[in-house]
Amino acid sequence: MKPANVVAPKPSSGGANLFYNPTFRSVIFQIIAVSALVFFIYTIVNNALNNLDARGIATGFDFLSQEAGFGIGLTLIEYDETYSYGRTFFIGLLNTALVSFLGIILATVLGFFIGIARLSSNWLVSRFAAVYIEIFRNIPLLLQIFFWYFAVLQVLPSPRQSMSLGEAIFLNVRGLYLPAPVFEAGSSFVVAAFCLGIVASIIISIWAKNRQKLTGRQTKMGRIIFGLCIVLPVIVYFLAGSPITAQYPELKGFNFKGGISIIPELAALLLALSIYTAAFIAEIVRSGINAVSHGQTEAAMSLGITRSKTLKLVVIPQALRIIIPPLTSQYLNLTKNSSLAMAIGYPDLVSVFAGTTLNQTGQAIEIIAMTMAVYLTLSLLTSALMNIYNRKVALVER
């Protein structure tokens, strides 16, 4: 009997098998997508540069070394008209960082206070918090900035009729004037004592938390921090012969000289940003607290823990796991909303650099790119810090 003819399988094409490999195809498609994006960006940039060259507009960052020739109302570092455009960039950056940092702190404190008040058993307190939230979060931020600047601060008296508190603090249409500290010889000891107190407080706080985990005993950190950060520097201050004095503002001519001045543009922007963002933070805090099981509160109350300590030690630490992610978004929004400062003339990055500097130099691509990079960096830095804190308070699962 003849054996049946067996047909040997044909060798498959290696290229075909490779093409049907999902991993290989995903890599190829990603390479194609990235290449197309790079080509698209290159085409846009190249066309823009060619158009600028055709109009005789120079490109590059050489303009940053040119003399600015204009003044700035608020500077945290030394500046006058003879400094370069590069200096105006850093001044605008610092002014933006200043209002963003202060705004985040004030909005957080006010938002947590209003959010907790929203849950108060007192009807009047709860209604007041609800009215605050509904009013300020539903009025556009730009209108609130205009309100504080034009309707509140611009109707204050002139410098000669300033509202004063003693002979140290003055408030008028040109701003708020406060005494400025003057550091003389020996003041470094006071500063060193204050820094040492902060470091010691952090170390003791870590030790106290570890001690509480092991033994259950609590340490009264409030008194320790007060003693290290307040009492210790005061003692060193007197032992060193009172080396830190105060420079009081004085009316000279048509305005006050000396001391620390807070311009009305900064005050209006800071008030509007803080109050507006606090309304959203309050709702985030309220929802985070409501998400914590009511049994946690009942268990704490059954142990004899007061309501304030229950909120501080039991409820809020658990609510933070829910609060932090949306809270981060509000911080990012506040930082980006600070660009509305241009509407009232506050010298932030958009007003000083993307405004005046751009108009004088015409370097649109470079200036806008630098401005966008600053806001992107500030947002990514804020997000990174909040993510670190979020991982710290997150519930660790086994």
From TrEMBL:
Its main location: membrane. One of its GO terms (cellular component) is ATP-binding cassette (ABC) transporter complex. GO terms for biological process: amino acid transport. GO terms for molecular function: transmembrane transporter activity. Keywords: Amino-acid transport, Cell membrane, Membrane, Transmembrane, Transmembrane helix, Transport. InterPro entries: AA_ABC_transptr_permease_3TM (IPR010065), ArtM/GltK/GlnP/TcyL/YhdX-like (IPR043429), MetI-like (IPR000515), MetI-like_sf (IPR035906). It holds the Pfam family BPD_transp_1. The chain crosses the membrane at residues 27-45, 57-77, 89-114, 135-156, 185-208, 220-240, 260-282, 340-358, 364-389. CDD domains: TM_PBP2. This is Amino acid ABC transporter permease. It comes from Vibrio sinensis.
